[in-house]
Amino acid sequence: SRVWFHAVSVGEFNVLLPLLNQFRKSYPQYKIFISTTTATGQELAKTKTAGFAEVFYFPFDLPWITAAYLDLISPSLVGIVETEIWPGFVKQCQSLNIPCIIVNGRLSPKSAAGYLRWRVLFGPVFRNFAALAVQSENEKNRFEAVAGQALSARTTVCGNIKLDGLQAISEEEKVTLRKSLNIEESDFVIVAGSTHEGEESAFLRISSELRCKLIIAPRHPERFERVAQIIQSEDRQARRYSATGRFESNKDVYLLDTIGQLNAFYSLASVAFVGGTLANIGGHNLAEPCIYKVPVLCGPHIHKAKDLFQKLNERNAIKQGFDVEELSKIVASLKFSPEERSCTGENGYRFIQDSQGAVARTMAVLEQYLPMGDRATEKAVSNPVNMIGMSERAISSEITRDQMSGAGVGGR
Predict the structure, then answer these.
(1) Is 194 helix (H, G, I), strand (E, B) or coil?
(2) Are 175 and 264 in contact, with CB atoms under 8 Å apart?
(3) Secondary element (H or E) of residue 235
(4) Rg (the chain; Cα; Å)
(5) Tell me: the pLDDT tens digits for 161-219?
(6) Tell me, what's the pLDDT at 379?
(7) Apex CA 80: angle with CA 77 and CA 82, to 5°?
(8) Would the CA dihedral through 304, 42, 14, 192 be positive or negative?
(9) Residue 29, Cβ neighbours under 10 Å: how many?
């Protein structure tokens, strides 16, 4: 028996991982296949699932290519993380009676407005899914607005798997990490995570004005060198994770130039800024620092994480600044008011604790579509990488992997 999960990149794979672990525990007889679209997603998936899953790039969304993959893998079920819509692939699954299910489904207000304008096209695409396990009632309403009430009976509000997947490192690991970076317990530390262009400069300025330590974790690996140059241009010294760097002077900035480590580094934060919110991206995982009782900061652009922002805001667990000056004032307030800092962090932590259970609810949805026996026809699938090479050559040797990665319709 086989299942196929698709997680487009690093963020989606991190969402998928706790569900994968539970699926393995509940159904050890199933062979797991995982596809990603980005190179960083591939790297992380291979690292985290070594020994129990086959990892490969998602195929170009053409019927003869997707049909070949589905024939070779013969999955009993396909799960697509969040909302990465591949119309041809989903239709192919339906025609082959392979249940295709959205897990941790989300549809931001901005994306929903776009789909609504073209609901004649996208309504049927959404209706091709066997089921949707979505994050919130708001998401359910947005999907139904596009696809109609016919989707209602197949849509379940399961909560956000990101919140189930948040696990703190141990106190011993935290102490070891802090010492390795030469950070004292009394130091005020800003961790700026998942940053984009302009956000690093903003927090270089804020950390300089408030004389505190700064750790920067760029969202995309291809920007590591760029961010190092930005740090140097501000007459600061970049101490890099890749070079086993540590704080040595007041001018030092720690650059987390790797993937998969941000969660641990949030444990060092006095306050944490979540990127993609000062830059007009829409926001990343606003709740991640909360597992360490760390106050969360964000900018004005939270349209991709609006529902989560609203829930944190209702709990007084997040601080929003609309520009650099306002964010600087918020950081200063938190620095000089330990009581406010502690209260905000505690509120976020309680929100995480109250929001558990999404993995179990999502598993209940998946289980409705798993066969009691092995429905898939056993075929030899020696190496998905070879499958990819064969399929790509069948299309054209001139099609690059980047072109292949752009064939879907995102639901961000």
Answers:
(1) strand
(2) no
(3) none
(4) 22
(5) 989 888 899 999 999 999 999 999 999 999 999 999 999 999 999 999 999 999 999 99
(6) 36
(7) 145
(8) negative
(9) 6
CB of 6 closer than 8 Å to CB of 129: no
Q: For 293-297, what is the mean pLDDT?
A: 98
Return the beta strands (E) in 124-242 as ranges.
131-134, 155-157, 189-195, 213-218, 237-240
pLDDT tens, 216-272? 999 999 999 999 999 999 999 999 999 999 999 999 999 999 988 999 999 999 999
pLDDT category of residue 276 using cuts at 50, 70 and 90: very high
Cα–Cα dist 49/133, whole Å:
23
392, pLDDT greater than 70: no
Q: How far apart are CA 318 and CA 320, in angstroms?
A: 7
β-bridge mates for residue 239, sequence order: 254
Q: Angle at Cα 303 formed by Cα 283 and Cα 353, nearest 5°?
A: 60
Listed in sequence order, the residues at least 6 apart from 139 whose beta carbon sits closer than 8 Å to its beta carbon are 105, 106, 107, 157, 307
Give the angle 177-273-325 at the CA atoms, nearest 5°.
130
pLDDT at 102 over 90: yes
Split at pLDDT 50, 70, 90, the class of 35 is very high
Q: What residues contact residue 280 under an 8 Å CB cut-off, 6+ apart?
A: 301
**Short-list 234, 218, 237, CA closest to 226:** 218
CA 243 to chain centre: 26
CA-to-CA distance for 154 and 107, rounded, in angstroms?
Answer: 16
Sequence-distant (6+) residues with CB within 8 A of 178 are 185, 268
Residues 6+ away with beta carbon under 8 Å from 26? 363, 367
Looking at 163-226, which runs of residues are DSSP E strands? 189-195, 213-218
Q: State the CB neighbour count (10 A cutoff) for residue 205.
A: 15
Task: Give the tokens for residue 134.
Answer: 């979505």
Query: CA 33, CA 20: separation in Å to the nearest integer?
Result: 10
Give the residue with greater pLDDT, 136 vs 343: 343
Taking residues 137-151, what's their average pLDDT?
89
Evaluate the CA torsion angle 114, 116, 121, 127 in order and state its sign: positive
Q: Given the DSSP bridges, would you call strands 409-410 and 84-85 parallel, antiparallel or unpaired?
A: antiparallel
Burial (0-12, 13-18, 19+ Cβ within 10 Å), 339: exposed
